From TrEMBL:
Matching Pfam families: Succ_DH_flav_C (PF02910)
SUPFAM superfamilies named in the record: Succinate dehydrogenase/fumarate reductase flavoprotein C-terminal domain (SSF46977)
Domain Fumarate reductase/succinate dehydrogenase flavoprotein-like C-terminal: 16-131
Annotated pathway: Carbohydrate metabolism; tricarboxylic acid cycle
Name this polypeptide is given: Fumarate reductase/succinate dehydrogenase flavoprotein-like C-terminal domain-containing protein
Taxonomic source organism: Psychrosphaera algicola
Amino acid sequence: MNNYQTACSVSSMSLKLKVGMSNNVGVIRDQTSLRTQLAQLNEWFEQLSLIGVKSQSKLYNDEVVEYFELKNMLLVAKSICISALHREESRGAHYRLDFPTTLAENKAVHSLLRLKHNQLYLTHKSVATEKNIEVVNG
């Protein structure tokens, strides 16, 4: 983190994140809205490195806590977008306008994400066999 001042603060970016996720990645979604939000999240990740923390307190520093909370919220939001983009069906409470049907139970998969070297990796695991069936770099 550095003290580079930008028009974007942690609190304003956090609010934009909440609004964007609600508008683009809510219960009803499609590829366009998911890709739009994912592109915005990637941009915010880059902007986050430019946001400074003014407080130099070595004790409990609220600004540092908020910075890392936002960084984690962005990571979770990106994980949700990547998973939703790769789930080309409607399942449970999540409805894809571009994929309105639910796949047969024997084609159902769990979506598993892991973070390695600042890169998200998505693995699909078959519900029926519990074996890995696909690995997608996210």
